[in-house]
Structures are given as structure tokens and as C-alpha cells.
Amino acid sequence: MVTQSGKSAPDTTRRSERSRRAIYEAALALVVEVGYPRTTIEGIAARAGVGKQTIYRWWGSKADVLLEAFLDLSGQAAQEAGGEPYAIPDTGDLAADIKAVLRATVDQLKDPRFEAPSRALAAEGVVNEQVGREFMTKLMEPSLQLYVDRLRSAQEAGQVRAEIDPRIALEFFISPLAQRWLQYTGPISYEYTDTLVDYALYGLAPR
User: Is the entire prediction scored with pTM above 0.85?
Assistant: First the structure.
């Protein structure tokens, strides 16, 4: 747009997007540097170079800011990976396919960019019902559905019993890893997640 003076009018859309991205980056950086409890709206605003009112115009709390920033970060990671970062392949070998995606999950959980904000959101979701619901719906559910789809494919191929409920079965892979990661009950590694898959698919009885 050009004004009567002949000068271009400010592009408010571009300015808003630039501010939004600065706020994302500030929120994620502060959670890594000072931790979630010490991260504040004031701190995010100062780091991003915007006023507090700008943040409150778009979000209701620091948890809302962090959730959206983390969703954006996950989307960027997907693009860097050339698409869906955790798409579970179907090579015909269920164990190998699940192990591959769990190894990718281990890599992300150990990535400093993801670790601090994902821990903060998981913890906040326990005490904040709305954040917990959005964390599950927007972040967890899409990934869990990939496991459901892969297990159903294995059922169709006769590799998993037909009566198995995939939504319950996936907990054998996901729940122990999540608990160990959140509660620091032990190291997470490829060896650990490979073992989870072996135990879940082959059981504990002698073969």
C-alpha cells in the first residue's frame, strides 16, 4: 500500500509475524536458560523486544505462549526432516519399524531445543487442565495415531492378534519411555527403547 505522500505504508501483517516469531524464540530460549517457573511474560516481552500488551493480545498466559511456540518448533523440525518427522514406516517388519521411530523419539527427547519446553508443558499439563488437554490434543495425539495406524497394519498382515486394541498396545512402548524420561528413573537410549519393543512384542515367556 502507498500513502498520499508516496511512501509505502507499514506492513502490519509482516510486522505482526515478525513479533510473533520473536516471542516464540524468546519463550523457548528462556525456558532453556532459566527454567519454566522463572520464565515470565515480562521476561518474554523484554527478550522479544515487544510490549507486554502485545503478548496478552495474542495469548492468555506464558503456558499458552510456550505451547504455541513448541508447536511451531515441532513444525519446523518436520520441515527440516522433509515431512512428518515421526511417520512410522511399514517395511513389513513391525519390530524394526517401531524401534526406528522410538530411536527418533529418543533423539528428540535429548535435544536441548525440545527437552526443556516439552518437560515444562508436560508438568504444567498436570496442574492446568486446559494446557494438559491442548498438549495431548495438539502434540501427543497425532503421534499416538501413527502407532495406532502401524499396529492396525500389522493386524491386517497377521503379525498382531486381531483382538488386540492398538490404543492399549501402544502404551507398552510409550508409557515406560515417558515415565523414565519425566521422572529421571533411568537413562533413555536406543538400547532401552529396543528392549521395550522386544518385551512388548515377544513377551516375557521363554520362546
Answer: no
